[in-house]
Design brief:
Structural class: alpha+beta
Order of helices and strands: HEHHEHHEEHHEHEEHEEH
Shape: globular
Strand content: 15-25%
Amino acid sequence: MPLTMASLQCDFMQLGVKTGMVLLLHSSLSALGWVCGGPVAVILALEEILGPEGTLVMPSHSGGMSEPGNWSHPPVPESWWPVIRNETPAFDPELTPTRLMGAIAETFRKQSGVMRSSHPSSSFCARGKYSAEITGEHSLSYSLGEHSPLARVYDLDGSVLLLGVGYRNNTSLHLAECRANYGSKHSEITGSPISVNGSRVWQVYEEYASNDEDFEIIGSAFEINRPESVRSSRVGETQARLMRQQALVDYAASWMTKNRK
């Protein structure tokens, strides 16, 4: 049978989603099965559970608003780089679409009442009680670190819901990268088109070089060593995981410090 808002709510509540939560969602609509209403039904099902005291958060990254010399999925010819830097329109939180975030996140971005942070390539969207606090201050440099929506979710003791996706999609592990201390950690230069005093500029800034190749290993170790912090059950046709973000980030930062060379 197709999934409905009611059946999704039952599955979410069985997993542990509760009223008043700050919930950071990473999702794949296709993994769920056939949903009556598609991404809208998933969003509304979660929002009804969270209620007016809760806050729903999703990544709304737009990777095309970044340094083209760093692109690899797919890369573009070097002769294109100056054109892309000079001609890509400035990031607009209302207009710029997400990229590779999935149908649920892109639909959520356009919902009435959703607030979006200002980062041109690594923004987050939020709707609910703490949406302004989560999205309000997002630094251009080190965009997944201490001055990011991820850190504000951490401060609010929020939870992460992986819905049909794995730990490689879990952006909270990038916050752990920023906090960890390991030998290969370094910064790199990137850039994005932004609006400054009404004029489009290509702004250069720094980010930590990220590596998500061990994220699945970290996630498996986290579930083994912190089982009290993770719940897993079926939602529709996929496996879902709900976890405390603080526990995940603290564990992952310690793991990276010990195991990354």
